[in-house]
Amino acid sequence: GFDGIEQVIYYLLKQYPQLDPSRVYAEGLSAGCITATGLGVKKTYLFAAAVIVGNLLLPRLIHFVPGGGPMLLPIYFFTLIGAYKYGLRVGLLTAALSPVINCLFFGMPPLAVLPVILAKSTFLALAASFIGQKTGKITLLNLIATVAVYQIAGTFAEWALTGSFSMAIQDFLIGWPGMLIQILGGYGLLKAISRI
């Protein structure tokens, strides 16, 4: 079953530290194909659930800080982590579900800004998964590029959705501390979990 396969993989990764855990693949023919696909799906939902929970808890904590949401941009942090580390499927699941669940259960983000948050989260998932998968490296430059790409694309999307350029550039004006946290905190957390 899945657990036995995973135990063998973890054993081999532990015994041979030179192996890159981000480059472990499963494939098979016939029933083996079904098992390999199942492993990927099981892990995708497990990792997506973990980062979605992070994206539910972090904004709740940050909103205790006056003006914390717009300044620290907490709804994006674990989308960045999930997409960069685990790829596009985890990133998109997190990008879509985190803001919607937060909106439905906690009223943040407000329904009026949900489309903008969803657009930016989606751009973040696309940028982070692309850069993370293409380079295979965790560097500050990669994270700066990831944040810059999603913020620039998100600014244009917000401008298109709201018709207000001054509203669209708010993340750059007051959200820069959040962008720094995404870059530096994202770098630290990705490095810390790089062997998981």
Q: How does this model look, in words?
A:
The structure is a single chain. The protein has helices spanning 2-15, 31-62, 68-72, 77-86, 88-106, 114-135, 140-162, 165-168, 170-174, 176-192. The chain is globular and about 55 Å long. It has 196 residues and is mainly alpha-helical. The model has no long low-confidence stretch (mean pLDDT 87).
- How many individual helices? 10
- The geometry reads as globular
Round the mean pLDDT to the nearest integer and report it.
87
Tell me how many strands there are.
Answer: 0
The end-to-end distance, rounded to whole angstroms, is 21 Å
Give the DSSP E fraction (strand runs of 2 or more residues). Answer: under 5%
Helical fraction equals: over 70%
Low-confidence segments, ≥5 residues, pLDDT <50? Answer: none
User: How are helices and strands ordered from N to C?
Assistant: HHHHHHHHHH
Characterize the largest beta sheet: strand count, sense, and whether it forms a barrel: none
The gyration radius over C-alpha positions equals 18 Å
Structural class: mainly alpha
